[in-house]
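Priority: medium. Attachment 1 of 2:
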């Protein structure tokens, strides 16, 4: 932003840069740089976005969780973002312009567990559905439709995740309701090849 634009918006270049730097600390540097252009000349909008990020900053995810960006290239930088949809008082502009929406969190160690593609897909679906509560309750039909896998592969995938200790049954299934699965911290997982009996 040029000093001339900043003066028209009623703020100094120092104030604008301070908001951009605070936004980078609250989210990440890429997010702050992406916000620079849309908020050029709109110091009030930038200030609202920073205030929203301050409110959204308390971790809603377990401490062991790390983000998984489904469309990231190998070696892409780690992207951390608060749950934008959780605070309904967020400025509409900030929610619409967020380049980090539609993301979910999962521990990186999931890739080191020797899971096949079906098991990873089921685990990531559980992570996506669990959100900050660490509990998900998708039905078998929901899992097969969301992961685009055959229904007969769901039970073995869940059994392997249970055997590795990556998930646990929080509430067993009933005749009308699916089971609830709780995600467990990665430091409690069994080593690959040494599944829990």
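Attachment 2 of 2:
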């Amino acid at each position: 932003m040029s000093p001339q634009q900043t003066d028209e918006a009623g703020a100094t270049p120092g104030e604008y840069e301070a908001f951009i730097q605070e936004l980078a600390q609250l989210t990440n540097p890429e997010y702050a740089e992406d916000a620079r252009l849309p908020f050029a000349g709109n110091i009030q909008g930038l200030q609202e976005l920073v205030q929203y990020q301050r409110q959204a900053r308390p971790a809603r995810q377990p401490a062991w969780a790390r983000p998984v960006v489904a469309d990231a290239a190998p070696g892409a930088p780690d992207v951390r973002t608060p749950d934008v949809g959780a605070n309904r008082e967020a400025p509409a502009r900030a929610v619409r312009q967020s380049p980090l929406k539609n993301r979910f969190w999962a521990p990186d160690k999931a890739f080191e567990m020797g899971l096949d593609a079906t098991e990873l897909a089921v685990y990531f679906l559980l992570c996506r559905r669990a959100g900050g509560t660490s509990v998900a309750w998708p039905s078998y039909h929901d899992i097969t439709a969301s992961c685009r896998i055959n229904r007969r592969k769901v039970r073995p995938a869940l059994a392997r995740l249970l055997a590795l200790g990556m998930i646990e049954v929080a509430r067993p299934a009933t005749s009308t309701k699916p089971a609830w699965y709780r995600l467990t911290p990665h430091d409690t997982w069994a080593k690959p090849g040494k599944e829990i009996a």
